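Run log, item B.
One chain of 340 residues. Sequence copied directly from the ordering sheet:
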Amino acid sequence: MITILKKGTPKEEQDQLVKWLEEQGVEVDVSEGKYQTVLGLVGDTSNIDIDMIRMLSIVDDVKRVSEPYKKANRKFHPDDTVIDLGGGVKIGGGNFVCIAGPCSVESEKQIIGIAKRVKAAGATLLRGGAFKPRTSPYSFQGMKADGIELLLKAKEETGLPIVTEIMNENHLPLFEDVDVIQVGARNMQNFELLKALGKIDKPILLKRGLANTLQELLMSAEYIMAGGNEKVILCERGIRTYETYTRNTLDISAVPALHKLSHLPVVVDPSHATGRSEMVEPMALAAAACGADGIMIEVHNDPAHALSDGAQSLTPDQYDVVMDKIRSVKEALGTGVWQK
């Protein structure tokens, strides 16, 4: 249920209403937007008399919300959420970010070299896998804690905030200095992990599962937010369909759909979506054009010899070209602030 207050409602009267609602056994989420204040009621609202609340002089309207996700719902939070990612970099609410780096951290020279190149091209965050979920148990599984240390060295060299994936809540102590924690597609519905991430104060990049609906993605975000951590970024990275030409099928329509349903920022990952380096550029441009808040691209200094996902990785030179085109798209549309 949401309660929309009239413009200019005195703070004292608003606080009195919030206190009364909480006494009815519900949690009240207050969203103070530019034009209106919305009280989102989470919990059992069946015993709350809508007509009585609607009659209050400070109340403009009261509505029941049918969707099962509440905190992630735009009805509860009409304005876009803006999240500070570290180093002054923000995402959401018109702030556009570019995330780039290798699928896996392989060596100090590799990650620092790539970090310097992507930063020079305009990237605002550095990605790199330290813990790698792989389909085959015989594939490279990542450098783990050593990989995180190398990411931190790259951050020290370049100033870029870092993004890396977590696979187990027991690894959380290793992620203390990581700026943004990524939850991979295979862990989107690892609810115990999501609950643990809800208890920390750190941005979470939540990837859509390979065969999950948008509502299921938002419900996973709700798990994190229900724990108290509302710094969630949604990531569309392609879903599994019957098409085999690409690794996955990029659901570009998810971007405007998620923006309509939720106030959370939305990032697109064209690398994992297509699995083909030659398709990364057109899909990245499509993401920029349709209103994504960020784009995440895999970049490797030597894709042919990458330990993981070389086929979908761009070289630094190719990334330079793509970034120039993304910048042109954003300038042509006149949307978003390019975060640097």
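Observations after the first pass:
- The first helix runs from residue 11 to 23.
- The longest strand covers residues 95-101.
Flagged for discussion on Thursday.
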